[in-house]
Specification:
With 439 residues, the chain is an alpha/beta fold. Helix content is 29%, strand content 22%.
């Protein structure tokens, strides 16, 4: 084996989400690599269950785990809680907000996505997104605090506004939030208040197109709509938001919906780190169209993964921005790096870039839960709905949670909530200011 193969390659991974974490774990304890993982937070979040934290079904620690703890046995992986603010592509180095300089031989950018307001950034101050644990806790705190203030006030107009939750976006996140909030107030909180009837809480789901859950088949979308209606959720289809102001949604038809809690689940965009790479962006969402091996065009040493990617699979179908796709991308990049190092010093070294395998996405299907006991699942030609789909959703999510403690905590929490209809995560820490609770 050539001496070149003993040179330790420095791999910098930006982002501790599904893609970044998977890549780190695949390179774990490989003496050929020195891995540095940088993330703004010190924890990995199981994002598919964020909505359950937002709706008081689970506590934050149930779906999150320290990145350091996950990688504790990975002797060649160093973790930094920092935010990369500059990338010197020519010099192969990145700089963090802390001032630390991170040099690399290979760069993996997997920083994830953020809530998109389609160019109307001023709307952000009046809405709540759902991409981080802080977002989920903010939603839960706001909705529960609004109910407390509704119990306190004698003003019926103010109470009506406080007891309205508007959710913009009829995708899986919006639908799951709407169903869970309806379950919360109709099942769990119905005997907790004396001056208000929590069943009067309005949950309004706003969707700009003619159906919800557009990633599913039409019959599944219709099932989801029927189920939400049965739960008491008001679904407004073909309704486009024209403006968002404090405590109010203004629609294109001139109508206004007053709501003390406005949740924005209408779209996502890449984190702005993609603009630091100096390459053309593929869409207005800031995503990058990589080559088939997930490397950035013109920079074979730089890879992108997860929500930062816009690409089509071998079947000419867009690769969705979901956790399984991100995990598969992280695995693929690690495989490419290992194979490339193996080829160095062999007769194939000069062709190593040409020999890189292309990324192939294995579609494991999509699923969405719609309140207690109901869900929809689509995997290839197989479709499920109702209780069986709900069980499938439950066990699949348990299986993918990282760490035994998280799985056990979630399973016990779900079992307790299922039997008693009393979710425990209803404590309001640091409630929003009370000076004008309706705003």
């Amino acid at each position: 084996m050539a001496a070149e193969n003993f040179r330790v390659r420095r791999v910098l991974i930006i982002g501790g989400g599904f893609a970044g974490l998977e890549c780190s774990q695949r390179l774990s304890n490989d003496p050929r690599f020195s891995v540095t993982l940088v993330d703004k937070a010190n924890h990995h979040v199981f994002q598919p269950l964020l909505y359950q934290v937002a709706t008081a079904s689970l506590a934050a620690p149930d779906i999150a785990r320290s990145i350091r703890q996950i990688l504790a046995d990975s002797s060649n992986v160093t973790v930094f809680m920092d935010e990369v603010t500059a990338i010197d592509v020519a010099g192969k180095a990145a700089t963090g907000k802390s001032g630390r300089r991170y040099e690399y031989d290979y760069l993996v950018v997997a920083a994830g996505a953020r809530t998109s307001f389609f160019g109307r950034s001023e709307w952000e101050q009046h809405t709540m997104g759902l991409k981080t644990l802080m977002d989920a806790q903010n939603i839960r705190r706001t909705v529960l605090a609004n109910l407390e203030w509704a119990e306190l006030t004698d003003d019926e107009d103010e109470r009506r506004k406080l007891m309205t939750v508007a959710i913009v976006g009829g995708g899986p996140t919006g639908v799951e939030l709407a169903g869970a909030f309806s379950d919360l107030v109709h099942r769990s909180l119905r005997t907790n208040f004396r001056r208000i009837d929590t069943a009067r809480l309005r949950v309004v789901l706003v969707e700009g197109s003619n159906r919800i859950l557009e990633t599913f088949d039409t019959d599944q979308s219709e099932y989801g709509l029927r189920r939400l209606t049965e739960l008491g959720v008001e679904v407004a289809l073909n309704t486009r938001v024209d403006d968002v102001r404090a405590g109010a949604l203004h629609f294109a038809d001139g109508t206004v919906l007053e709501a003390a809690a406005i949740i924005w689940a209408a779209g996502v965009e890449a984190q702005p780190i993609t603009t630091l790479l100096g390459v053309p962006l593929a869409d207005r969402g800031g995503r990058i169209a990589p080559l088939a091996d997930l490397s950035v065009p013109g920079h074979p040493e730089i890879f992108v993964a997860g929500d930062l990617v816009r690409m089509k699979d071998v079947d000419d179908k867009p690769v969705p921005g979901v956790a399984p796709a991100a995990t598969q991308m992280g695995k693929h990049i690690a495989k490419v790096l290992k194979e490339e190092v193996r080829l160095e010093g062999t007769k194939f070294a000069e062709r190593k870039l040409d020999l890189r395998p292309r990324f192939r996405y294995l579609d494991k299907g999509v699923m969405a839960i719609i309140g207690k006991n109901h869900a929809i699942v689509k995997a290839g030609n197989y479709k499920l709905h109702g209780f069986i789909a709900w069980l499938a959703w439950l066990f699949i999510h348990i299986a993918f949670l990282i760490g035994f403690r998280n799985r056990l905590a979630v399973l016990l929490g779900w079992a307790s909530s299922y039997i008693s209809n009393e979710p425990e995560a209803r404590i309001i820490a640091n409630p929003p200011g009370t000076k004008d609770p309706a705003n």
